[in-house]
Amino acid sequence: MPKSNIALLGFMGTGKSAVGRLTAQRLGHTYIDMDTEIEHRVGKPITRIFEEDGEPSFRAMEAALVEELAERRRMVISTGGGIVLNPDNVRRLEASGLVVCLRASPETILARVEHDTSRPLLAVEDKLQRIRELLEKRRSRYDAVSVRIDTDPLSVEETAEEVIRLFNALQEEKEC
Ligand code: S3P
Description:
By secondary structure, this protein is an alpha/beta fold. The chain is about 55% helix and about 15% strand. It has eight helices and five strands. It has a five-stranded parallel β-sheet. The chain is globular, with a radius of gyration of 16 Å. The two termini are about 15 Å apart. The relative contact order is 0.21.
């Protein structure tokens, strides 16, 4: 089935992993979390990849993995928040299925990532300020994704239901 993938994009802490896992379970799709997959393949956590190999090296691994995953079918892919920095990534994912950008306010994001130490870009004293800065820098990239869900008022379950509704609508559209 062509265009049978779902890719979840969005800033850190917008719920991509939790929503992706549940969506995949409900649809019977294969779930993949890109950060986890990269950590697996490289054999070290993202923080160490950033420290030892540098961010450009991580971005190259992300791009290579997107190319690979876009060739597969019936996948739910939770991407890393910086995937939008390379427009080719978004184009490839869009060619392979539904791309949804999850959004949340800086305050919601902070509440979700506050005690997490696995994100090198948020390893700073004033996390809220950093979140605001990064969101502002990337705003146009996230806004360029035409399908977006504001997750602030939604539970993981409700967000997954909305993703599935959008996916089913896309499948029906293609059948017409
Ligand atoms: C990043 C987001 C992280 C991870 C890396 C860089 C970013 O993924 O890929 O730390 O640039 O926004 P999550 O969005 O899953 O936290």
